[in-house]
Write a structure and sequence with these properties.
single chain; 171 residues; alpha+beta; 5-stranded mixed sheet; 4-stranded antiparallel sheet; 3 helices; 18% helix; signal
Length: 171
């Protein structure tokens, strides 16, 4: 009996050691963020692309920098009437993504982007626009405690260190 008990204990412990799954091929995304700066022009079809690496189930959030705050896109922009410009001008900052890329674009609703802005508006809405791409793992799920419209809430909840955010110039 003295020999049988240690063997049984060893077999029991061995069962648990080998049944635990240590799978390093999980590939789960960790929360991360990067800044992308670029200008929307007719030569880039009012869009630019940034590479990412995520699982197909992960979440991508994109925010546009407004100088003192971040605004979640897609976002419809309504321009005031201006002399010599079409009336009721509107466009939308938008994005699409897959597991390898995020494409940020401007979708024009009712005017030609090449001629529909005053020079001040072009500077404000097209030139050197800064976007923050936030990658959120699917394992975190859509959490009711996070207001995704509020950039600061997202950064706090997912513990993203803003001092480590890389800025990439795309054009």
């Amino acid at each position: 009996m003295k020999k049988f008990l240690p063997i049984l204990l060893l077999a029991f412990v061995g069962l648990f050691i080998f049944s635990c799954k240590d799978d390093d091929t999980d590939y789960d995304t960790y929360s991360q963020s990067k800044d992308v700066v670029g200008s929307f022009t007719s030569s880039n079809s009012y869009a630019f692309t940034q590479g990412i690496a995520i699982q197909g189930t992960d979440v991508v959030l994109v925010y546009r920098y407004l100088g003192d705050s971040w605004q979640l896109i897609p976002k419809m922009m309504y321009l005031p009437d201006a002399t010599g410009m079409p009336t009721n001008r509107e466009f939308q900052y938008n994005f699409v993504f897959d597991t390898n890329n995020v494409q940020i674009s401007i979708d024009d609703q009712n005017f030609n982007l090449a001629t529909g802005f005053t020079s001040a508006e072009a500077t404000q809405y097209l030139n050197n626009q800064r976007f923050r791409i936030v990658l959120v793992p699917a394992s975190a799920g859509k959490n009711a405690n996070v207001n995704y419209e509020d950039y600061n809430s997202v950064i706090k909840y997912y513990n993203i260190d803003e001092s480590k955010i890389q800025t990439i110039k795309v054009n």
